[in-house]
Amino acid sequence: MSTIKIATINQWFGLLVLSGLLVGCGGGSSTPDDIAPPVDPPMNTSVDTATTDCGAYQGLILTDDVAPVISFKGVPYAAPPVGDLRWQAPQALDCSADVQTTFDFAEPCAQLEGDGSVTSLAEDCLYLNVWTPADEFPSDDVKPVLFFIHGGGNTRGSPSEFKLGTRFYDGQRLAARADAVVVTVSYRLNAFGFLAHPALSAENFETRSGNYGILDQIAALEWVQRNIGVFGGDPQQVAIFGESGGARDVCTLVASPLASGLFSGAIMQSGSCRQPTLSEREIEGVEIAEFAGCTSTTDSSCLRDADVLTLLEAVGAELNDGALVAENVGPAVDGYLLNDSPHVAIANGSHNLVPMIIGANTEETGNFGVTNLNVAGYENLVLLSYGAFFGNQILDAYPADNYPTPRDAWIALTGDAQFVCPSKRIAKSATQHAPPVYVYRFAQAFDNVLYGSAGAFHGIELFHIFQQTDNIDFYTQTTGDAAVEQAMAGYWSAFAANQNPNSGTLGFWETYSPTEDRVLLIGNDLGMVAEPLTAQCEFWDQFSNFMQ
After folding, report:
1. pTM for this structure?
2. Which of 141, 168, 294, 537 is the most exposed, fewest CB within 10 Å of its CB?
3. Structural domains in the chain?
4. Is 296 a catalytic site residue?
5. Are the C-beta atoms of 55 and 491 separated by less than 8 Å?
């Protein structure tokens, strides 16, 4: 069976990153009598300490215009996956008797930039970050927990990355304004998190290979269940949320029996749920290994001896060779983590039955690097990207004359195909089972010439969720931006607390019904609207079995 592949997805992904618009512990125990003195905190700051099941951590008390927050950055949740632990499931920490300072983000997991330059070569990267409201900390008045999984196609990204001049995954403001505990997590990426290879699978038949990054996320969620209470969080009120590749990982967790009971709700922002089989991933993995100079399919010693940069460059070479698209660095259906592709599990009702929020943005691909197009260029690009059979049908459904410019037509069709309509398909499937589903469409664009032409582009909502629109370079926050920030903090926090985004302080968000087909429009105009893309998604649904 053939699949539709967009020929330019690799170039888009690189442009996206370059432009900046993308967007149980083992060991000993410790007591107060044997804890070593902590490192001095930065000047003019106060500290507080949280004691977990595997050590004590000193965090910083931060001021905010809403409420003070305590941050704990770089808290380890599993043993460093180095040496013999490379390509193994995450292992328990060796606990420390010392108070450990958690003032700064840990180094990102090993990855390259879109242009091939090195971001990080760190394999020791299994750390998470916690921001908690400082009022009466610690307190019996526990808060809901928002657990965030970053995007980046499972090849790059980190909780500490910058976009448009701001560290936009920083959870301080969201914790203060949502009155919630915010957790962000680093997990293995690229070859270290998602390489599937027959020799690696043979080493451990149960866990197979290729899903180490998701197993990291599960280990972090298990850490949350054991420890978030000492940070003021409620382990029974944990909403996982992710964007793009992070949303795909959220969908994987929703479908995985290994993640059962670890969260009470799931939010998928601009993601997909279709995953390939382990055998398909292993074919790609063999090719990646060959780029790294490792030709054996039965002996993993060459791979295990390979240095970090060689393995990262091997994945990059496979991406550039066109055999592997950036979307396809990720989880696999292996019979252990996943019994079915998540979209199948959700349709069958065999997933973790939790409430969900699912949505996408109105101009998802507005920042994907396509600028000047005339009508002929648009039509040629569609035919090149989708082939003549599909391409001519797409041009009938998305004629250039229906849009202000050919570029707008391209943004509409690619956004619908890659993000909006796959999200709607998952929402429709999920409504066939008991927990409620809430669907949104994000429409708040940046109001200036520099960024505004991209519209409500892929990842833009993250600046609003993390309350960062007044920190963006060369941009002045509007009253609409501030209102959207408040709304998203309110909806996301209420969903974490009650598995329902409605708290009575914002406009009512209806549960999704495929028959009614109404979604929450999030923008300058906030409220329920009839789905504006019903016909377009019906068009794409007929190709859903062929789409990646």
Report:
1. 0.91
2. 141
3. 9-211+276-332 (3.40.50.1820)
4. no
5. no
